[in-house]
Amino acid sequence: MSDLLELTVDQMGAAGDGTARHDGGPVFLPQTLPGEVVRARIIGKRGEARVAQAEGWLTESPDRVAPPCVHFPTCGGCVLQHWAPAPYAEWKRARLVEALARAGFEDAPVAELVATPRNCRQRADFGLERLPDGRVNIGFHQRGTTALVPMRECHVLLPALVALLPALAETLQHLEGLRRLGSAVINMLSSGPDILLRTDAPLTMPDRRALAALATRVGIPRIAWAGKGAGAEVAAQIGAVRHLLSGTEVVPAPGAFLQASAPGEAAIIAAMLAGLPKKLLGRGNIADLYAGIGTLSIPLAARGRVTAFESLPDAVAALACAAGKGGVKVHAVKRDLDRQPLAGPDLKDFAAVVLDPPYAGAAEQVGLLARAGVPAIVYVSCNPAALAKDTKSLHAAGYRVVAATPVDQFLWSPHLEAVVAFAR
Predict the structure, then answer these.
(1) Peptide bond before 73: cis, by omega within 30 degrees of 0?
(2) What predicted TM-score, i.e. pTM, was given to this entire model?
């Protein structure tokens, strides 16, 4: 085992770990804060850097606070519960400032962090694990491992979502379709909880009856199931499934992507609309790229005619049906933008483009937007590193940042949502 080192934490790293320097290289120190001096032991590597475990504090930061959750720091869902709100918020805002600076926008007008409250997250992806005695644990994984932390409480999720877990675990205990490992995506929709189970064996008829009994007893409109690599099918349904997006009723597919919280969603929509020009050019046509089920498309329709591009057929169908029934000016188009991004001729009729790409970003698509000279672009990002990489092409093409809003969608995690509006 390595000897103890005395290390001084000089800053917070992008993954939410304190960082120090030793032998000329960076050392990541989980659960430490800037300004702290610790005795630590090197325990591994992360990329080119080393990772150390603090075993004693010689100097503690005045910004250290007591974490509220009994699962911290074992649970990988949160890594920053030990940091006071003010420096935590400033660090998250600084992540957006730094990302835009790396793209070339060094003086971008970045707003203060929009905070989201505790206990408001409406979507969770849980791990399932059958124990040797037959019981089933439900929870999040330990950081960097596949080990499951059985959930007893959560200060991020909606309380109603957490309250479902004991009854779900009891039912899963008797399912033949769950042999060892699985997962459960739970979306809290306007109609109630919507569950997508993935298990390592097929469901039997008794399994389906047990799930139907659970749905009836607890009030779950729909429970869907999918095997490994298979599409979802409804295993039990006792009521209609619906979700309101900006006042329009949508019927999402099982496991559909939702914004993490209703307050976060509202903040993103407000920043997106505020970032658009007050008067759109031409006919006011707007493109929404990576549109999902229409979280952004539907409110955008108040500003102009929206063409929503999405690759998932279920999402396209849900949005098209919702727009048709609700009289919303959205035309949903199935298109895989990673394989077939929109280029010059596709973009000439759009006065503005909004995009909310996946975590890896959309460098090729953003480059084509820059080349086409789209007048206004609003980029909704969940990854500052991808945002920095993608928007270099916008800086090179002469765009400027009109507004940038960091949104703390993922409380106590290192992840950051941001809405950045660009104009030529």
Answers:
(1) yes
(2) 0.94
